[in-house]
Amino acid sequence: MTQILNIIGGGMAGSEAAWQAANAGLQVIMHEMRPKVETFAHRTGHLGEMVCSNSFRSDDHEQNAVGLLHWEMLQADGLIMKTAYKHRLPAGGALAVDRDPFAQSVTAALTAHPNIRIVYDEVTTLPDDGHWIIATGPLTSGALADAIKAETGAEALAFFDAIAPIVYHDSIDMDVAWMQSRYDKGATEAERTAYLNCPMTKDQYEAFIDALLAADKTAFKEGETAGYFDGCLPIEVMAERGRETLRFGPMKPVGLTNAHQPDQKPYAVVQLRRDNALGTLFNIVGFQTKMKYAAQKSVFKMIPGLQDAEFARLGGIHRNTFLNAPTLLDDQMRLRSRPNIRFAGQITGVEGYVESAAMGLLAGRMAVAELTGRALPPVPNTTAMGALVTHITGGADAKTFQPMNVNFGLFPPLEGVKSGRRGRKERYKAYTDRAKIDWSAWLEQMLLDAA
């Protein structure tokens, strides 16, 4: 094939789109502005760099929609998922990875591919010709974001995405903290002890909440509003919603027994998850924050076990831009006003590494079908992939559109299964069984069409 596909952005979506298209025989040019042009959140010039959590969330493909999305991507030879499982760390029922080796492996795979050329430059305008996928994510450069706004005639929606802090393990007091996954979940001892837990009494929790509420926070620029995605709320914003909110959220004590004081039930628990294979770094789970650096050190050292903590990275906050996809994109993820341009990843209004990579996978395959003159069979909305793309390209209400994680609420209902909480396990298994059959059939149809 001599057709060229240009991809802007080397994050999860851009990397996956490039891999899918190149494996199908397209010549791919990836445009990545890093390290020439830096961002607030990135630390390296690697492709597929994880800038927030190091977790791809649940890998339970029978009871969890995210785990099902993992499964579907693996069946489609997804680079991001294959690489994630190669670099996984113990994390209970979650798929956490050693972030630097992961990004290095993604970069190496794409660099070595004979059909991929990587150009390190910044694209600042919307291309008039050629075939393009824009997968620039939440940190789209200002110039390109302005070009998108000018073309669409609509203000890009925005919220603020916060980064959780990372602590050096050797600075944690293990006479206070202990290792345990919630409900001892996991098939191995490493999985059952994947999380580091710091307990709090009621008095300690109340003092911590007071400090959170009083701490100095990062000020917003004039004209900006703080519209947060509910799946990634800063902890101080959660605290503002009610003093018990954190205790029923990231600091819930259920399913945990203090190894040092097994007879005393913690009032609240702060969990940390291993951030690298060496086990030298741990990130504080669910502790995204917009507190100023000095305030973070002061407040987080109030956590029992972290009183002498040293931080490899403190939390931060950055602007996260996304399109009103139901209005601007067609069902092939193309910009209606410029159908030579597709969008993929978080900029389309999906939330999370997994969802971003999944939309990159679809965008890459859609581009292959278009450039080779083949009809792409519709992605079944009974699958995790199909449910998600259907939502962002027309299933969602454009007036209230907000970033969305994959979840079973996006799937078409099943007849003959129990509703409500009591029937949830049976219902979720039925969703995933149906999805696997339909996704496998879709992939098989694509192979037949390509033959």
From TrEMBL:
<dbReference type="Pfam" id="PF01134">
    <property type="entry name" value="GIDA"/>
</dbReference>
<keyword id="KW-0274">FAD</keyword>
<feature type="binding site">
    <location>
        <begin position="9"/>
        <end position="14"/>
    </location>
    <ligand>
        <name>FAD</name>
    </ligand>
</feature>
<keyword id="KW-0489">Methyltransferase</keyword>
<feature type="domain" description="MnmG N-terminal">
    <location>
        <begin position="6"/>
        <end position="374"/>
    </location>
</feature>
<protein>
    <recommendedName>
        <fullName>Methylenetetrahydrofolate--tRNA-(uracil-5-)-methyltransferase TrmFO</fullName>
        <ecNumber>2.1.1.74</ecNumber>
    </recommendedName>
</protein>
<keyword id="KW-0808">Transferase</keyword>
<dbReference type="InterPro" id="IPR036188">
    <property type="entry name" value="FAD/NAD-bd_sf"/>
</dbReference>
<keyword id="KW-0285">Flavoprotein</keyword>
<dbReference type="InterPro" id="IPR040131">
    <property type="entry name" value="MnmG_N"/>
</dbReference>
<dbReference type="GO" id="GO:0030488">
    <property type="term" value="P:tRNA methylation"/>
</dbReference>
<dbReference type="InterPro" id="IPR004417">
    <property type="entry name" value="TrmFO"/>
</dbReference>
<comment type="similarity">
    <text>Belongs to the MnmG family. TrmFO subfamily.</text>
</comment>
<dbReference type="InterPro" id="IPR002218">
    <property type="entry name" value="MnmG-rel"/>
</dbReference>
<keyword id="KW-0963">Cytoplasm</keyword>
<comment type="function">
    <text>Catalyzes the folate-dependent formation of 5-methyl-uridine at position 54 (M-5-U54) in all tRNAs.</text>
</comment>
<comment type="function">
    <text>NAD-binding protein involved in the addition of a carboxymethylaminomethyl (cmnm) group at the wobble position (U34) of certain tRNAs, forming tRNA-cmnm(5)s(2)U34.</text>
</comment>
<dbReference type="InterPro" id="IPR020595">
    <property type="entry name" value="MnmG-rel_CS"/>
</dbReference>
<dbReference type="GO" id="GO:0005829">
    <property type="term" value="C:cytosol"/>
</dbReference>
<keyword id="KW-0520">NAD</keyword>
<dbReference type="GO" id="GO:0047151">
    <property type="term" value="F:tRNA (uracil(54)-C5)-methyltransferase activity, 5,10-methylenetetrahydrofolate-dependent"/>
</dbReference>
<keyword id="KW-0819">tRNA processing</keyword>
<dbReference type="GO" id="GO:0050660">
    <property type="term" value="F:flavin adenine dinucleotide binding"/>
</dbReference>
<keyword id="KW-0521">NADP</keyword>
<dbReference type="GO" id="GO:0002098">
    <property type="term" value="P:tRNA wobble uridine modification"/>
</dbReference>
